[in-house]
Amino acid sequence: MMKLPRRRFLHLAAAAAVLPAVTRIAAAETYPNRYVRLVVPFPPGGGGDALARPLANRLSEAWGQQVVIENKGGAGGNIGAQAVAQSAPDGCTLLLGSAFLAINPFLYPASGYDPVADLAPVTLLTVIPNLMMVPNSSPAKSVKSSSITRKPTPARRRSPPPASVLRPISAESCSGARPASK
Fold first, then answer.
1. Does residue 106 form part of some domain?
2. Which of 7, 13, 99, 114 lies at 20 to 30 Å from 88 by C-alpha?
3. Each residue of 56-78: pLDDT tens digit?
4. Cα dihedral sign, 56-57-58-59
5. Model pTM?
């Protein structure tokens, strides 16, 4: 029988204790280990698609795994968001979220998911300013003077637009400042 020095035994024991942690770290470095679904919660061809497709191509190159775009439009983004919220928590299903995640819980309280409890933010992709514009020939020079602020007459009253077309207007865009015409 071979005699094992105490110091050598302690080194082997320490290595055996650390081995499971090292294999977990090595496994984490291989993310993703299969294709990744990038869910765009709006129909194909829109602004979300224009952002998601180049992003998916770049992520596929960086990760060495295919990133597949899955358009799941409907209910102002809720259908796609709910699909991601209910997917396996393996990091292989991503959501291209936007302002609808903050707005829709108030419009659709029974949507089947809670954006705060069920989804985790990963990174900010872009900040897209939204502008209200009128033709140069328009008499409206500010939000206050535009026809948008007038109350509709009963004959013109219609149902509200879907949540996907509601966009927040920043205070700066409502200041009434208008660039000089060329």
1. yes
2. 99
3. 999 999 999 999 999 999 999 99
4. positive
5. 0.60
